[in-house]
Each structure stands twice: as structure tokens, then as C-alpha cells.
Input
Amino acid sequence: MSLMIAGLAIFTLYIIYKRYIPVRGVNNMERDKLVKLDDGTVLLDLRDYNISHKDKLDQAMPLPLAYLNRHYQDIPACSVILVTSNHVDKNIAARFLINKGFYVKGYYFINNS
Output
């Protein structure tokens, strides 16, 4: 019984780590830095299509977080900047892309409230 409780506690801590602990080296960026992307960096908009369609960023590649696992091969460069609306999406996407070999330069929040 105690082994099952310990396993459940470890699993819970892993989920908390993956979702809520910030990724080291992925820093917040200002909007003016996003406009000057000419080094091949991709601006990856992780918000849902219905939200990102209303507030488009000109250079951004829309790829909602739900589709990231299926379509990460379509991202044309190895360095990305994430555009999200919350910290959980940013952390999940950054960890996933780093594990797939991408360099995540930073993130930018767009508040949709």
C-alpha cells in the first residue's frame, strides 16, 4: 500500500513539475523584439485557432498546443519563440520542443481577457 502511495506522489510531483515549474533559459520577450525577427527564428503561436485568428501576429505560425505533437515537424527552423496566453501552455510546449531538438529563445504572452 505504501508503495502505491509513493508511486502516486511521484507521479503527482512529475505532473506539477511539467506544468508549473518554469523552463530554465526560456525568458519573457517584449513585443518590439518580436517584430525584428530576421535570423530565421520562427514565431510559434500556440493559442487556439479561434483566439489567434482574432488577434493575429503578422509573422507568427499558428500551431495550437493540442496539435503540436502531430505537427512539430512542420516548424521550419530549429529556433522558436512561443506565443501563448498562459504559463502552463508555455511550459508544456517549451519542454516538448526542447526534447525534440528545438532551441526555444523565449516566449511572449498575449492576454485575451
Observations:
- The helical segments are 2-20, 31-35, 49-52, 68-71, 87-99.
- The CA atoms of residues 81 and 97 lie 11 Å apart.
- The first strand starts at residue 27 and ends at 28.
